[in-house]
Amino acid sequence: MGKALLWAAQGTGFTFLMTSLGAAMVFLFRKNINDKVQKVFLGFAAGVMIAASVWSLLIPAIEEAEAKGHIGWIPAAGGFIIGIAFLYGLDRIIPHLHPATGIVEGPSSSMKRTSLLVLAVTLHNIPEGMAVGLSFALAAQHGDPAAYASAFALAIGIGIQNFPEGAAVSLPLQQEGFGRGKSFLLGSLSGIVEPVFGILAVLIAGFISPYMPWMLSFAAGAMMYVVVEELIPEAHLGEHSNVGTFGVMGGFLIMMVLDVALG
Questions:
Q1: Is the separation of the CB atoms in 237 and 39 below 8 Å?
Q2: Helix, strand, coil share of the chain (percent; to 5)
Q3: What are phi and psi of 167, to 5 degrees?
Q4: Which of 61, 186, 199, 206 is the most exposed place for a label (fewest CB within 10 A)?
Q5: What mean pLDDT do residues 52-65 have?
Q6: Half-sphere exposure of 23 (CA within 13 A, CB side)
Q7: pLDDT tens-place string over residues 34-43
Q8: What is the pTM of this model?
Q9: CB under 8 A, 24+ apart: contacts of 72-77
């Protein structure tokens, strides 16, 4: 477990670093990202997460279950549904604001818009951290270099799409009147849940390793909920958006190539 914890900490540390680098864009730009560029980033993040859910989580979950002599699709489907329910529950009980629409969801709250914005991004970083942590936990269980390479590919893909997420928090905060330093700090901290939940996932997996297929598909379901509920709709706000569509395709392609080439 120690090796898995170390690798998971490094992998999720990288994704957190990428969020921080994105948040640092507040020091370079005074305005929000252009709408078309934002749609490309949102679509790209969606594509990365879709491909990661399939190649890095669901397929390994099925293979792991079948290797244990079980029916592969049962834990894959069951964990997927539980992951969806988990994120849906968090969406319902935690107030948050979506940066692209300005719409507040969840229970009514007296919190400021800035706090709700940070909560929204933080909430959706949870499954990403879990996915990276579980990938390294699975690799450690088997001691397979290819599995470690696949986990690294997942961390790289998630890290790349975290860059615009950090900027999507810090730049609006600056527009709301926050100083650049505070905007950067809050944007950066929105990604801290990834190392936290990545390490927690490894710790849990160490105690319930027979349920690893369920945990992998759980992370996939949670990520897909974020994609369908938030990223794809926001990438296509307003009129039909080809740039958002191309972003999805590009993110999917890059994550697929990373996983297959490195794995």
A1: yes
A2: 80, 0, 15
A3: -65, -35
A4: 206
A5: 93
A6: 26
A7: 778 778 888 8
A8: 0.87
A9: 72/213, 75/211, 75/213, 75/214, 75/217, 76/213, 76/217, 77/217
